[in-house]
Amino acid sequence: MSAVLKPVEPAAPVYPASIERIRNAVPQRRDWFDPTPPRTDPEAERLHRKQRLAVAFRLFSRYGFDQGLAGHITARDPELHDHFWVNPFGLHFSRIKVSDLLLVNAQGEIVVGNRPLNRAAFAIHAALHEARPDIVAAAHTHSTYGKAWAAMGRKLDPLTQDSCGFYNDHALFDDFRGVVLETDEGFRIAEALGDRKAVILKNHGILTAGPSVEAAAWWYIALDNACRVQLLAEAAGKPVPIDDATAAFTHERVGRPGGAQYAFESLYQGLVEAEPDVLD
């Protein structure tokens, strides 16, 4: 007679330590980003702003926002509030390092650095920083899609979720008078900007401003993309805008500076890893 085989009881599962940690973890809900604690040491904050500023230039180069000698991003100094850090004139965005940045005072004089200053950078940004004490940083270049949309002489429509980040939060400056060399035009741009995050400079380009370097830089990238999308949509046919109520609701979710900061930081990390000399 053949032997009767008894069923084998399955052994208790043996979990690796990593699985045990997962099984013992207490689930938490985190749908958005925690606010970044402010840096109380002015020197630490100064270094933070300068590092993000230098990286922003290199990112702008990667995005193609680096035509010729045009373009500047500024960061207000955390102690000398009427001074700001800016790129030197004639140094390509892709080569800028922290040590290259200039510190400029309210009279347009260079306090730190030995390279020349772009006069248009001073004329625009000095006025913006004076008119808007809440602004830490502002960005302006002659990006291709920004220029193309600026030639339309109108504000953007809320065509996509992303463009809703600028819904009722950008302005139009429609008084182009050539190259900006005097602060009076900078003040007129600041007046048009008002309390918004961005302004379209008719026949010139686009400009963004924010409470951090990260926000101003990311909003510039996002605004240029919104210009590109609307140009493509209008070239293809007649786009259908998002209704006002939905656009306003979406703006409250995607237009905040916290989200812009984290979007920029995700790019910052990759740039620094690939080009560590930017922090020199």
Task: Tell me what the structure shows.
With 280 residues, this protein is of the alpha+beta class. It has helices at residues 17-24, 42-62, 119-131, 144-150, 183-193, 213-236, 244-254, 257-274, and strands at 72-76, 84-86, 102-104, 110-112, 137-141, 170-173, 198-201, 205-210. The protein contains eight helices and eight strands, in the order H-H-E-E-E-E-H-E-H-E-H-E-E-H-H-H. Helix 4 packs across helix 6 and helix 6 (213-236) packs across helix 8. It starts with 16 loop residues before the first helix and ends in a 6-residue tail after the last helix.
Distance between the termini: 85 Å
> Structural class, judged by helices and strands?
alpha+beta
Helix percent reads 40-55%
Order of helices and strands: HHEEEEHEHEHEEHHH
Give the strand order of the largest sheet, numbering strands 1, 2, ... along the chain.
4-3-2-1-5-8-7-6
Low-pLDDT stretches: none
Name the beta content range. Answer: 5-15%
* Overall 3D form: globular
Report the strand count: 8
Largest sheet: number of strands, sense, barrel closure: 8 strands, mixed
Provide the residue-averaged pLDDT.
Answer: 91
Question: What keyword list fits this structure?
Answer:
globular, 8-stranded mixed sheet, 280 residues, alpha+beta
Summary, kept brief:
The chain has eight helices and eight strands; from the N terminus they run ααββββαβαβαββααα.
